[in-house]
Design goal:
This protein has 6 helices and no strands. It has 145 residues and is mainly α.
Amino acid sequence: MKHKAGIIGIALVLILAVGCAGVGKKSPAQLAEEYRAKAQDYEAQGNLVEALEQYKLVLTVDPESQLAQEKSTAIEQELHKKAEEHYQIGLKFYNQGQYREARKEFLTALRYHPEHAEAKDKLTSTKKEIEQVTRYIENTLQPDE
């Protein structure tokens, strides 16, 4: 009885393995079309970071895709522009001493453009500056102040 159950188990595993071998294989054209559709959906939603990732996937599968090349270039330029805008807003907050808001803007700039050197520098230098503070004044506000 154990022998029959073992044979049946092995047969089931082989059937499943052979039956699933062809599932999931898509042609490069199908993959490129799926990535392009996702990219356009993300772009329509305003999520340019994800749209750029999908267009890069299209170019990985189909390097000759003119649409993906054009869209990638346009989105990268838009993301660089947004990153710079957030960096400038962060600088204003930083200069006003509003470090939490400045940090948020610098991080947003890095989300749009991960290689934004100035935003990286501000995030790392701010931490060093705070660590170098030796004295500070604490003031508790009373009601109606």
